[in-house]
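Let's practice the habit of predicting before peeking. Look at the sequence and jot down your guess about where helices and strands might fall. Then scroll down.
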Amino acid sequence: MKTLLLLRHAKSAWSDPRLDDHDRPLNGRGERAAKAMADHVARKAPRPDLILCSTAMRTRQTLAPLLKRLRPPAPPISLENGLYLASEDVLLDRIRAVGDDVPTVLLIGHNDGIGQLAADLAGSGPAEALAALWEKYPTGALAVLRLPDSPWSDLLPGSARLLDFVRPRDLAVT
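Done guessing? Here is the structure:
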């Protein structure tokens, strides 16, 4: 079985209008959420065998606390500019290109693409988690999807089972 973890970057700062969108950092709430989600992933989610991450500052800062919490050695990390503000179709194509020797992938990206991808892939799962996923994919949220036992290249909409949908507020992050 394959597992896909889709993590939206944590809350970013808008305080410096001179910064390009790509360079915006996390704000204080985002830093707290990134740490809480890192703890959650390290304790309760399947360990990623590959991490795909947008090159944006806010996604890299969302990744940083997780790398400190995963037991060594860290999984391979691919920082990819093509994931920056990528559409659902671009994200799906990237995931389909993953080698079949990789059982668990963590993708850290942006909305609207990451939320749309999670909603489209999740064909089944706990009703409450599905309803929360379809309602809103807030900053810092994580969807954990179990995929069919087939190549990544065969991944289709509706083919995954949503195992978990966790938002920072579910972890009491304010």
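How did you do? Residues 1 and 150 are 8 Å apart (CA to CA).
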